[in-house]
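Forwarding the complex inputs:
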Amino acid sequence: MNQKDMKKIKDGRKDYDELVARSIAKNPEAKPESEYMTDSWIPVNRLYTPLDVEHIDFAKDIGFPGEYPYTRGVFASGYRTRAWNRRQVAGRGPADECNQLAKYLISQGQTAFALHAGTNADSKVPQDTDDAIYAGYAFRDTTKMDTLADWEELISGIDLNKFHWMAGEFAIDLAMFVAAAEKQGYDRRKLVGGTAGKVRLISYPENKGNPWIDQVEFCTREMPNFNSLYIDVGNVREAGTNAIQEIAWTIALGMDCIREVMKRDLAIDSFGHRIHFYHRVGSDIFEEAAKFRAMRRMWARMMKEYFGAKDPRSWRLRTHAQSYGPVFAAKQPLNNIIRGTVQGIAAVLGGVQSLAVDTFDEPLAMPSDFAKVLSLRTQQVLEHESGLVNVVDPLGGSYYVEWLTDTLEKEAQKIVDKLEELGGACKIPASAYFLQLMRDSAYRYQKEIDTKKRIHVGVNEYVMDEDDPMTSYAPELIDYDYKAAMKKQIARLNKVRRERDNAAVEKAKKMLLDVFRSRENMMPPLIEAVQTYISSGEIIKLLVEARGKQVGPRAEQYADRLVSEIELAIYDWY
Amino acid sequence: MTGEKKVRLLLTKHPLDGHESGYNILTRGLRELGIEVIIGGSQMTNEIVDTAIQEDVDFIGYRIMAGDPLFLVQDLFERLKKKGADIPVVIGGIIRVKDIPKLKAMGVAEVYIPGSLLSEIANFMKNYKRARTT
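Prediction (whole assembly, two chains):
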């Protein structure tokens, strides 16, 4: 834009400001000017014009979809070629029932599956179903995989070439997934899907033998189509961080994990294109869309400039977004359908590759099948009826959204710098600092709800009597007999233990113990060992025997309370 | 109310439950509202009882998401009874409305579901303690 045009806009803006001043003198705005903010408390103006984006270079900062720095999306044709994956979280009952549930959801249009396996104790290590930790817990809304027999049943009859599996939390899950798939004739080099465990570097500080880094190294060599490095930011958002902090954690955590993987002599471009993400998406539509745009730009620049990645595929941040559960309320539960829809719109405008819309009954009970399908329908309405998929990055060029994208980037960068200064996201000082930011943010949010500074519809405003149909509406909640499921699974497990070749299991145990001690990559031996039907719990016992307590199943073992708290808050929760 | 001893609360949760924003908010929020919060973190019921006795708390705040509250709470009460401990228990999390009367019949002092306010919870505990000690 030339100087003359800018001058015209400046003059026009002056006139507009005067007009507004006159107008609001007569008809005041709903709240004081300083209280108009995004969800992460960025103050926003009444109106944005080219003057607010003058400093943004279209070619360099915004550009085109499918091109560096991918602000406008990672794929050139957006959702026209392929809509986002519909990946609702699900899991219930033992493997056979969970397989039926998966098939039902596929028949209703689900395209990817994040298994709610609940195998993860707070250090993400699965015990066997007969461990006391699962009493009163397992199978209510989770499934539980004990041995390869369970995985074989779980994936049976599902087309793994088309359907994306998130293969569980831990190296053992990936080993069982690969072994089960290969038994059914699949080639591991062609398998699609991804790992789902967040990389833990605080409780597993040593690179050699770190199960999550082992997974990345193994996939890089043997499973080229499988997403190997999982950057889990969604759970950090879920714990109360805001959108700015979510971007910052994406970049800082990504940097730390990548540095760790590269210590294995893996070149950045050998695995950079197999990094995948998990984010949350809140209700502030423009901020959430801008958030995904900003983080894509930051990620691309980090990969190219900091890590020196040359393959454009390594520059692309591909993510899964899940709607933001903490704002789903138990009061007037039907309102949550609308919240899920708003958040779904924000995610699609942000250009995500995969989406889960939380079920409206989640604050009340374990999700019902009815609600699960309704969440799928929400996604399908967005895809087919809303026009959202017609145009790539439809918000691109909006003065407000470009300004906000830029502002979010700058604010997030400050946090990234601080985390780097403190030694990197996965070191204790940086994690402790971030934990504090997270708590402050969560608390500020709740306090605003408590004081009605922020309106939460049906919760602190528009509240209705308990007996009003809107409030008392109770969806048909699931009454699943999880105790019977547990009995069935324990019987199954015992049968497997009885019928397997126990001499082979003993041999596998010796081999695994050696591998865990030598800290060689555990993936190939695990894949071999699980074929003897050794159980996850048995494998974990060997890991603890070889490595000592630091890999044990509980957080309390950390003598340092702070470490335990960080582990709990950032790494160890699901 | 100077001279009145602060309410001591053990805030705890099942080791398999995640999604802790509520837990984090409560820790901070209740502290600011004058409650002394002891962070239990991830605990099995036997550990909850041990910590509660050691820390001499006025309340156990048990957060349950994906677990079965009826099962877990009954287990907790049995263990408390075995140790002869009479500590009021407050439950929060994803609790079905129809389970609330059953939990109260078991002896749970109060149940909070999503959408509850910090001040409600803090006031309840303060009043409850006052009523118990006078």
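Residues 7-133 of chain B form a domain with the Rossmann fold fold (CATH 3.40.50.280).
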